[in-house]
Amino acid sequence: MPSLDELRAQITQCRLCDLSKARTQAVPGEGNPRAQVMLIGEGPGFYEDQRGRPFVGPAGHFLDELLGLAGFSRGDVFITNVVKCRPPGNRDPEPEELAACDGHLRAQIEVIQPNVIVTLGRFSLAKFVPGVRSMKEVHGRAIPYQGRLVVAMYHPAAALHQGGLRRVIEEDFRMLPMIVARKAPAGAVAEPAPAASPAAEQISLFAL
Ligand code: URA
Predict the structure, then answer these.
(1) What pLDDT tens digit does each residue of the chain (208 aa) get?
(2) Both ends of the chain: CA-CA distance in Å?
(3) Which of 19, 27, 48, 85 to mutate to test the pocket of ligand 1 (most atoms within 8 A of CB)?
(4) Which residues line ligand 1 (CB under 6 A)?
(5) What is the domain partition of the chain in residue ranges?
(6) Most exposed of 36, 52, 79, 125 (fewest Cβ within 10 Å)?
(7) CA of 201 to the centre of ligand 1 (A)
(8) Domain 4-184 carries which CATH code?
(9) What is the pTM of this model?
(10) Are 43 and 11 in contact (CB under 8 A)?
């Protein structure tokens, strides 16, 4: 199995799709190589393309706040995207671009072995749970996936732009420690903090 550094090198040199032609640089992802929690966004935007790091623009600053609500910092988790190069003008990634990048993402998951995968937005969720029509139906929920849990979250950029979603995504991130604790090997994670709100009781595990 390749190391995370080898995967990083493969991604930075990747020419599997046309996104590589327009990029300033690829954005492989970063964080704790043994993270229990992996967050997967959509694709690099302007700032990420410039700096080669995931979520460093306005959505990234909000993501840092959200991680804080869950008691995490960037160093605790691993953050990446379904496509590693910026779609021009921040358009949605095309199916062939998603397919070309799929091997990179699967390899990262294989190496890191996270217990919990947090999907940020619909393109990321669709990698693991196809056919979800609305984020409204699934956000905040933990969905069993090949021995892991996939937690569906709104994309932080969507939550930033639609005022009403901000509280929703904040509440979903506050629940994340409970989900992580549920999936952690015995003794690996401290007891979760007491529920921050009545919504804590509503979190449910379900299979699609
Ligand atoms: N949006 C994403 O989906 N990923 C990033 O890295 C930045 C913004």
Answers:
(1) 899 999 999 999 999 999 999 999 999 999 999 999 999 999 999 999 999 999 999 999 999 999 999 999 999 999 999 999 999 999 999 999 999 999 999 999 999 999 999 999 999 999 999 999 999 999 999 999 999 999 999 999 999 989 899 999 999 999 999 999 988 765 444 333 333 333 333 333 443 3
(2) 31
(3) 48
(4) 41-45, 48, 54-55, 59-60, 81, 157
(5) 4-184
(6) 52
(7) 30
(8) 3.40.470.10
(9) 0.90
(10) no
